[in-house]
């Protein structure tokens, strides 16, 4: 939500068409924000990656924000594009045996939350600073001290 409030044109796109845009918007927000900062793994076999040799047993660290902004994977990697497809981001572990077991539930929760906010409180705006987590593992807000305000809510009729 913080990113969408910093880029009101993107928030307006969700408000205008939440149902059709939500699937790609959720994936793009996961790529763009990268809530997990890094993960360390141990190489199981000798391999080469990016021209570097990694021996079995070596510890390697993957930085999700870097991987999710890799210009060789995504054109305009530093630009939020809510309709981006395909979007093979590394959120939730990037697939394979390390895929987050809650990935599908998290996707549904993000889409449901953004969809309801778009329908019920489309005029959300930042109204103050947001305190960030102090962590080298995950990123996000730690405290909202009146950072958002809204005018009269326009609740969609069902």
Sum this structure up briefly:
By secondary structure, this protein is α+β, with helices and mostly antiparallel strands.
Q: What would you note in describing this structure?
A:
The chain has five helices and eight strands; from the N terminus they run H-H-H-E-E-E-E-H-H-E-E-E-E. By secondary structure, it is α+β, with helices and mostly antiparallel strands. The protein has a domain of 105 residues. The strands form four sheets. It has a two-stranded antiparallel sheet with strand order 1-4. The chain has a two-stranded antiparallel ribbon with strand order 2-3. A two-stranded antiparallel ribbon has the order 5-8. Helix 2 packs antiparallel against helix 3, helix 2 packs across helix 5 and helix 3 packs across helix 5. The protein is elongated. 16% of the residues are buried.
Silhouette: elongated
Number of strands: 8
Q: Major sheet, described briefly?
A: 2 strands, antiparallel
- Count of helical regions: 5
| Average predicted confidence as pLDDT | 88
Instruction: State the helicity in percent bands.
Output: 25-40%
Q: Identify low-pLDDT runs.
A: none
Q: Evaluate the radius of gyration.
A: 18 Å
Task: Give the strand content.
Answer: 15-25%
Draw up the topology in text.
Elements: H1 2-6, H2 8-16, H3 18-33, E1 38-42, E2 47-49, E3 52-54, E4 59-63, H4 64-67, H5 103-120, E5 125-126, E6 130-132, E7 141-144, E8 148-149
Antiparallel strand pairs: 1-4, 2-3, 5-8, 6-7
